[in-house]
Structure formats: C-alpha cells, structure tokens
Design a protein that fits this description.
The chain is α/β, with parallel strands linked by helices and about 400 residues long. The chain folds into 2 domains: about 140 residues, Alpha-Beta Complex (Aspartate Aminotransferase, domain 1); about 220 residues, Aspartate Aminotransferase, domain 2, CATH 3.40.640. About 40% of the residues lie in helices and about 15% in strands. It contains 16 helices and 13 strands. It has a 7-stranded mixed beta sheet, sandwiched between helices. It has a 4-stranded antiparallel beta sheet with strand order 9-10-13-12. The longest helix has 16 residues.
C-alpha cells in the first residue's frame, strides 16, 4: 500500500511515452516460453572462436582487468584504424578519432545525443533498427521517416531530398541493412554527397554487418567517401563479426571535432568497456582471415536455408548482406505480420520478427524477418517446418 501511494504521488514525465518493450525481447521471451526455434533475435547459436576465447583468458590472467583508457585500449584502436584504412582507404587517427563502445547501440545512442538538440529533425530510413527513433526522441529531436522502395529496398533520394528542412540536423544510414539485407551502392554515396554538400547536416552510418556481404558484392562504407567522412560517425560491432554479441563491444570512428564531443558523453555513459576482451580483439584482428572469410561462411547458411524454402509458398526477398532473410508470406496467410509471427511461434515452434516492427507507422506488407545465424541442423529443421505451411490461415 505504501509503495502504491508513493507511486501515485510521483508523476514521471516519460521521455518515451509511446515506447514499450523491444520486439526482439518480446519474441525471444515467447520463443523461450513455447520452446520454439529462435530465428527472431539476431544472435548466433554457435560459439565464437576458441582462439579468441583463449586470448580473453590470456589477457585476464595477465592482469588486464582494470579500467581501460576512456577511449578504449590503444592496441585495439590501432588495429581498427589499420583495418579501416586497409579496406576503405581512410585513415582515422588512433588517439583522437576512434572510440571503443559498449556495443554499436551505445555508440548510436551517444552519437545521436551528441548531435541532436531539442527541435532538430533527423531523417530515419525505414524499415529501421528500433533504437534510432527512441534515441532521437529522448534527445528532444523529431524523427522524419522516409521509406526504402520495395522489393529491392533501395533508397528513394527524391523523397529524402523533399524531407529535408532548415531543421534537418542528421541522416541515419544503415548498410548492410537490417532487416532487408540491401546494400548502398556508389550512386547512393554520390547522392548523399550532393545532398549534404554545403549544409550543416551530419551522418550516422550504422555498419555493424560490414563483413557479411554476399554474391561477390562489396560493402561500401561511408568511410570510403572523403567528403562524407568529414561529417559522419561510422559505427560498427565486433559482436556481429566474431559471433560474440553477448560481449557488447563496438566502436565509433569520426573526425576529431565530432569525436571530441562524442567522448564528452561517452565518458559519462559507460566511461570504458571490458578490458581483457579489448586486448583479445586487438590481437585477433591482426589476422584478417578472421573477418574476410565471414562472407562465405554466412552465404552458405543463407543458401542452405533458402534452398529449404525455395519450393515453399514463401517468397524469399533479396538478401545481399547481414544474417537476416526477409520473406513474403502472403501466399501462406492473410494474418497481419504480428499475428502471423505469434502463430508461428506458438503453433509451429519458430520465432520470427514481423517487419512492421521496423516501421514507425502502420504497414501490412506480410513480411517477416528470419535470422539464419544458426547451426545448419537448426536451419534445416526450421526450413522443413516452414516449407510445409500452406495457405490455410
């Protein structure tokens, strides 16, 4: 009674009044409750490299267990700088332009908070990772939504251009794209350069799946554009690359004038992140085979899963990157995607994510997202279950 009375007397003015529990947490809990195959949340069900685990153990036993420097271990920042320069031809200064973060989501939140003041507008390209909008709103910004164009989910630059106003402060880009698996191309880079030239608009480029690209395509980083890097935060994640999502370590690269402001907030959000893991990653990154072979590894899983569904009533959409496959189920069910996702979890034992969760407004495209970062036997079993579904709902 006392707690209820106190709660009734305290009025919290929520910064996110329309935000509930993330769909990823909801569907994962449902997967656990119904003992379903979890193709919903984006994490592997296989372990990371034993060599990487041994390196963490080595550095922990060597005493690397206290705070790392606020920007991150220098050894890791050096390896990130070398990697970006080798792949994308851009040099980021180790001391002033790279910061190690507690996962990419923290980096995204910190970058948005660094940039956005009350009343600023942010262009968010939908479907979009669900952390973007809450981070903008919590900073007092106003999200402005522009949709990718299906079925290829390409950028509609005319629509983006028409959405820019005098209040536009930021554009958020994500490639390889979660949830659709689409990629930005050279023309997209050119359009973005023209769009932002001689403006105060900044860019956050979410590139956490940069090393998971298929069909001999290549990831084009914002870091490869000399013009765009002057106004961009480029963010990536070791969790997606090295099958270590639970370790929650990512990084942000940006020009020194932006990184200086980023670190002012970063130091009071987490200050620094897990020390022995940082040194382990630094050592692991010295062998680029640890990430250059990732494309073939995940393409084999995409193709295995796709082959199990190719004769089904599901329509597979293009997937050029990430470890997510979007499928159109309109020939299987007339249920909306949230209802169909719950049906699959409860009745068929397969948890998925409804694509509408990646949109702010209401959509009903009858598309779901499935994660294929799973052991082959799990993908085969899930594919066999899904391929038997017919239009009876």
């Amino acid at each position: 009674m006392i707690k209820e009375k106190i709660a009734a007397e305290i009025n919290i003015n929520s910064k996110l009044p329309e935000t509930g529990t993330s769909i990823f947490a909801v569907m994962t809990k449902m997967a656990i409750d119904y003992e379903a195959i979890n193709l919903a949340q984006g994490f592997p069900d296989f372990n990371c490299s034993e060599e990487l685990i041994d390196l963490v153990d080595y550095y922990s036993k060597k005493g690397f267990n206290q705070y790392a420097p606020m920007p991150g271990a220098k050894a890791l920042r050096e390896q990130i700088s070398l990697k970006i320069n080798k792949i994308y031809g851009k040099h980021y200064d180790t001391e002033n332009e790279i910061t190690i973060t507690s996962g990419a989501t923290q980096a995204i939140y910190t970058a948005i908070t660094t940039i956005i003041q009350p009343g600023d507008e942010v262009i968010i390209i939908e479907p979009a990772y669900d952390s973007y909008t809450p981070s903008v709103i919590a900073s007092g910004g106003r999200p402005v939504y522009v949709s990718l164009t299906p079925p290829k989910y390409s950028y509609n630059w005319e629509a983006i251009r028409n959405s820019i106003s005098s209040k536009t402060k930021l554009i958020i880009i994500n490639s390889p794209h979660n949830p659709t698996g689409s990629l930005i191309n050279e023309e997209d880079i050119r359009q973005l350069e023209e769009l932002t030239r001689n403006t105060q608009i900044m860019i956050i480029s979410d590139e956490v799946y940069e090393h998971i690209v298929f069909d001999n395509e290549r990831h084009i980083s914002i870091a490869s554009s000399e013009e765009l890097t002057k106004r961009a935060f480029v963010i990536s994640s070791f969790g997606k690359t090295f099958h270590t999502t639970g370790w929650k370590i990512g990084y942000c690269a940006a020009p020194d004038y932006l990184m200086k402001e980023f670190r002012k907030l970063h130091q009071f959000v987490v200050f620094t992140v897990n020390t022995p893991i940082q040194y382990a990653y630094a050592e692991f990154l010295k062998d680029d085979n640890h990430y250059t072979n990732l494309n073939a590894f995940y393409q084999s899983k995409r193709d295995l899963f796709g082959n199990k569904l190719k004769n089904s009533d599901f329509k597979l959409l293009d997937c050029k990157g990430t470890y997510f496959q979007s499928v159109d189920y309109s020939n299987v069910s007339s249920l909306n995607d949230r209802e169909f996702s719950e049906y699959l979890t409860k009745e068929k034992g397969i948890a998925v994510i409804p694509l509408s969760s990646f949109y702010y407004g209401k959509v009903n495209e009858r598309i779901i997202r499935l994660c294929f970062a799973k052991n082959d036997d799990v993908l085969i079993r899930a594919g066999e279950i899904l391929s038997k579904l017919k239009h009876d709902l």
